[in-house]
Amino acid sequence: MIAAAPLFRLVAVRYKTILDIPQLQLGALPVTALLGPSGSGKTTLLKLLNRLLSPDSGAVTYKEQELGSYDPVELRRRVVMLGQTAVMFPGSVRDNILAGLRFHGRAAPDDNELNTRLVAMGLRLELDRLPESLSGGERARLALARALLLEPEVLLLDEPTSSLDEATANRVVKHAVEGAAQQATKVVMVTHSEMIATEYAQTIVRLRDGRVQDGRL
Amino acid sequence: MNGIIEIEVIRLFAAYLLALGVLFLARKTGAVSEILVSLLRMSIQLVLVGFLLEHLLERPNLVLTLLVFLAMEAFAVHNIFRRVPLPTPPGLKRVIIASMVIGTVGSVGFFLVVIVGVEPWYAPRYFIPLGGMLIGNSMTGISLGFERLAVGIRDNSTKIEGALMLGASVRDAAHDYAVSAFRAAIMPTVNAMMGMGVVFLPGMMTGQILSGSSPVTAIRYQIAIMLGIFAAVALTVYLMTEFGYRCYFNHAAQLQVPSTESTPRKAPKLDVKRK
Lengths: 217, 275
Fold this sequence. Notes:
Shape of chain A: globular
Low-confidence stretches of chain A: none
Mean pLDDT of chain B: 88
Largest sheet of chain A: 6 strands, mixed
Number of helices of chain A: 8
Mean pLDDT of chain A: 93
Oligomer: heterodimer
CATH superfamily of chain A: P-loop containing nucleotide triphosphate hydrolases
Helix content of chain B: over 70%
Low-confidence stretches of chain B: 262-275
């Protein structure tokens, strides 16, 4: 696979005592995995990419522009992130899948489109149902459908499968990667699973104690 | 009957005897010293305020009246920070002070000039008691609203950050918590209006009737003061919640929930009996 220009560049980035990265490039290929044990700084690194955190020193660029030069909300609409917990907002499944579009002030697609999106994630849900009764795996996939509906340039996944069993986790990541590929959304995902990283990512960045051990194709 | 029956000093002591008698009965509750201190404080504070008001009413003075009003504002603000033991993000203290001052000065000014039509506008007989009522109620409202806002944002930080991750603006991510804090803070005032005249007769109206005013005059004042209190509470709390929730975010729209290390929450004591 021919590598395109990397989307993100980090130069001399430090964040508290959690992260110390002299140099790193990310997002040249469709799927990048940040692999490492818990406490290695994976989530912090991900949050630096869409400015949910700002580094104490150093520079992070997206498409060759410093993150500080973007409006933070506009940046997050292009670089969407999904956290470890599948957050459910008040309202029905429909309200939840449309929440992102509502935040962006964009028009809502019809129910057929929403159902197609849910089926693509392996979900068959009544749109009027309340999400409280959904299982962890269903919530994770609903949150994923919501993020993909935004058709972002980049999707940052902070181990949205951490609370799921291995088979469900694998299914959720598969849906995420396939869904993103269909709409040319690049994925940067945090995982502690060597198996998931090697199966789905073209680039694996290994982190330990806040430092990059290895970033290879 | 015109005019109020004066309570002679000796009869006032009888009221203290009544309180002390009840205190004797409640001596085993462990609250005796606290009640004694509060009785003493109430007496000293009221006597001092009585002398001050007597002096002010005899010789109305703009500067002195404004100083008393400012002292009430300062005490109210101090009380808000003391009563809510939650850490404040940068800027929220300024928002609380500004909301208190703008909300109460605006409502007191409107009340005195437009509703009652006092001449001169700073006439202490009206300015100080009405100002006190509006400031006191606004203080309670802001304390409640501040607590609900802080707890709402702290307890929903994952949800708020989840919305920010999807590209929500600060307003879309957190304004709901400002709205519920506002609702909670004005609820006591709303409840007071609901029960007024049925569940209880308000203090100001009772005082006026006791001092010889006709109930109709007293009711007019009471309706006006309740609307004034509602306006002051709603305005101060609206300003505080509307500008306050933004203090939990920095210029990069990042959520900044202040650390609770300085005021650790105590774990509840569990009453577990082991066999």
